[in-house]
DNA sequence: ACTGGCACTCCATACTTCCGAGTGCCAAGT
DNA sequence: ACTTGGCACTCGGAAGTATGGAGTGCCAGT
């Protein structure tokens, strides 16, 4: 169907169009890439490619630009992920190694990725559900109020204020805290509900209503925070891009947590880089953008995802390289802290 | 210098220009506002206003638009803050009252304000320096590592991992924790350094190096977090605005924490609404924007600031009303939680 | 199967024209 | 001393009109 030369032509069109942002014609192609044939031949190939839907012309008598389908083929078969330069790797390392808590790691990562790719970077906080309990803390903050602090093995800290139905003595709190920790320490979050269900029987009758309140909030936290936290950076880079849809739509989409979540996609198991191109994107308003994403985590465990959003006209090999590299480094940082 | 009618003319020009976004001419003025005079008279007044620098014409033979100086006069003397409608007040209340922790309060507030004003909203987290200690928690997370959690009276939680120089027994941690809390509980952050300096003498010799490490990190946290946290929302609304400077500059400025901080300005004592117009703004790149800001806090205590950023061509009375109302409600919410 | 030639299309750009809103100024009116 | 109507003038923006060039499709020739 598509012989080698036609594929080469498609690759050349993608590369040229990405770098120049102008529809590329047959003559320009033979000039810049030394295919050993004449423009006329290329034109025939281009006609075929167009018929198959890989490229299109904005107007009659203009050059061709790749379609989403064209980019897809390019990403799948015609390109290889471009590794970062030494300098870039070093930059990542120095930039990320200074972080001192999870917020800081995520913040630095998202800014780094935005700067590296000159696009919009999106980073998801390590998932609660895939984390495990490192410590539970109960702190009385006022009469009738207790603060629940939940610390995960990834360094994430969640807090919730609990209204206790009954007055609570200092030692009851201590007792409950000890109980919770012995019961939950090291437990994966997914296993917490099961473990928790047996707890109320282990406390005295008078503490039981309080314990119940605490536990219900604890479970609620696990569920609610299941809708994960996502941050982005590099919106300024959007201004330099040119969308067919208005910039406003894209900005709006970015401010919706839910959309951001969907955007990164459900985690593929490993740390492979996934690409979603234009209309492959589920969200209206992001139909003229592409997303390059990867999972990151410690060891084999994928904790969350991060990625980059840009125009479909994007340097895929370079972006994929940056995303992959950053994902790996973040994993290392998390493992080390 | 400027008689009443000239002021009325200026007010009319500002109002018309804000609502139509087109330079306003003498004829349009007399039509829309019933000043009892002829266009020619208005022209004379406009000539004076222009000479004084309150208005300008984009090109010869175009209508006039207000200058920054003109807006300034308008805000100071020609307008009154517009109170919100019943519906808007109710919307604020229902939207904010569902919040369950500080992050949530701030997040809801910033989105609310952006939606209400259709501009970019900026909210600063309650300042640490003006807060006081509600509780200090020490949690051993691994051998040689302790997590320091700091809870403020505003519900803010800070955490830091501390590398302890020596191994630390469970009871040492408990001891240190108790010591810290009795010493610091309820203390304003500004007073913490003084109180802390006497602590090392109260611990046994073997615990002293650990205590020193903990204390140094504690103080460091206070200092570092002095650079406050600021969030913004509503960037999508920027797209609808028209800047003389490029949108990119504005977006870039917004992503700089430092700039955002400066943008809200040093806190005026009370909750009065302050306005900074165009070139009054310290930052390059925000020279064509105006900022409407106010402090918020509990009772008389101003904890932080929040505000709105938009084009100089802005509905000042309405925006000031929204900012003032939201600031008050947030104060109430914080006081109640 | 490839190539050179050729007629054709059509977008961008630049140049012109033209209209009207708006101005400044002046002399006359109150 | 203001205010007003009149008038000539300016200038930006819209609409219309070339013009050129890049690119195409097709065809006949190698």
Please report which band the strand proportion of chain A falls in: under 5%, 5-15%, 15-25%, 25-35%, 35-45% or over 45%.
15-25%
| Succession of helices and strands of chain A | HHHEEHHHEEEEHHHEHHHEEEH
**What is the residue-mean pLDDT of chain A, rounded to a whole number?**
86
Low-confidence runs of chain A: none
Biggest interface and its residues per chain?
A: A-B, 30 and 30 residues
- Major sheet description of chain A: 5 strands, antiparallel
Helical residues, percent of chain A: 40-55%
Number of strands of chain A: 10
Describe this structure in words.
2 copies of one chain form a homodimer. The first copy, chain A, has 337 residues and is an alpha+beta fold. Chain A contains 13 helices and 10 strands. Chain A has helices at 4-20, 26-32, 39-51, 68-78, 86-97, 102-117, 170-184, 192-196, 208-224, 235-238, 247-255, 257-264, 316-336; strands spanning 55-56, 65-66, 120-124, 133-142, 145-152, 157-163, 230-233, 273-277, 289-298, 301-311. In chain A, the strands form 3 sheets. Chain A has a 5-stranded antiparallel sheet with strand order 7-3-10-9-8, with helices on both faces. In chain A, a hairpin with a 2-residue loop joins strand 9 and strand 10 (301-311). The first copy, chain A, is elongated. The A-B interface holds A 100-101, 134-135, 137, 139, 141, 147, 149, 151, 155, 157, 159-161, 233-236, 238-240, 246-248, 251-252, 254-255, 337 and B 100-101, 134-135, 137, 139, 141, 147, 149, 151, 155, 157, 159-161, 233-236, 238-240, 246-248, 251-252, 254-255, 337. Chain A binds a DNA duplex (30 and 30 nucleotides) through residues 23, 25-28, 37-41, 43-44, 46-47, 57-63.
